[in-house]
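User: I'm preparing a small set of examples for a lab meeting where we compare how different chains pack in three dimensions. I only have the primary sequence for this one, and I'd like the structure in token form so I can line it up with the others. Please keep the answer compact; I'll paste it straight into my notes.
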Amino acid sequence: MNYPTRGQVMLALDLLPESLGSDHFCPIDFSSKHNHTSPVSSLPVHPDVRLKRLPFYDILGELLKPTSLVPKPTGRFQETFFIFHLTPQQAQDIAMSRDFRPGAKCEYTTQVQLRFCLLETSCEQDDNFPPSICVRVNGKLATLPNPIPTTKPGVEPKRPGRPVDITALCRLSPTVPNHVDVSWASEFGRGYCVAVYLVKKLTSDILLQRLKQFGNRHPDHSRALIKEKLQHDPDSEIATTSLRVSLMCPLGKMRLQIPCRCSTCTHLQCFDAFTFLMMNEKKPTWICPVCDKSAAFDKLIIDGLFVEILQQSAGCTEIQFSEDGSWSPLRAVKETLVISSPVIKSSSISGKWHCNDFIL
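Assistant: Understood. Below is the structure token output for the 360-residue chain.
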């Protein structure tokens, strides 16, 4: 039996009608090792995988739905190909979104985004690169995050999970397909997926406005938390009657402007919302700077009680909460230092030393 060559397959794909859309395209194996004895993979082509939403990107379209990276029983190192098309409107939206302002990086704000994750359907998945990953888009090498060095012997350095912007490598045409070549090292018992999305890149200013649209959490929520923390425990010999909280942001070391914390955190200490968003725009970690636990964007709240406190305590950097939920400012105490300096007074009778006090 004669199999078609790669060029014949590609030509046939180019002749497919554009109305089919990306959902009709499956991974294509152009490996020369195809033979009659290759078993059919039990992995679904499009598994029901859900990737976690990225706060700094709005999804405009799905160019390639999550697709299994299907390994072949020919060795550890694998290779497969995918194809996706852009509609005329999508191609135009991308081309018109490029920033040509003086000093700008000429980046696209509407982007083609490539993502990898584990083939796991039980919960939403973080970005996760397969081992030894290499990606080419239309024959050009895609830039991936640098691997994190490891000191463990025999352990391969792993790339930090994050999306890959492949816009600059794409053909912005509705009539020409885009080809993605993925090579990776398979792992026993662990599968991976790839997906391609059309996204709109957002800024920390936009996310701040969205956070404000949710409104402030009612002050009574924080008052109840204060009363709970200061509630007397009859089994404890030590009773806490007050709580001291700083009004300084632990990130920017400046007085809070927009007091924010994660709804899942149990502490009262807030951080500045805009500073937190700007830091995650540069390097997304979404970790609370107070307790080092997860602080996802959709879990952030603006604390209404601290908004009131900041408005009523100009210049104050620390406050104290009482058992009833009330608060009072803590003013810095100016300390007076008294230094004794010896002064010699001329006296023909005693010839003794006398001290004068100086106050600084």
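A couple of notes for your slides: DSSP finds six helices and 17 strands in the chain. The longest helix spans residues 219-229.

User: Perfect, thanks.
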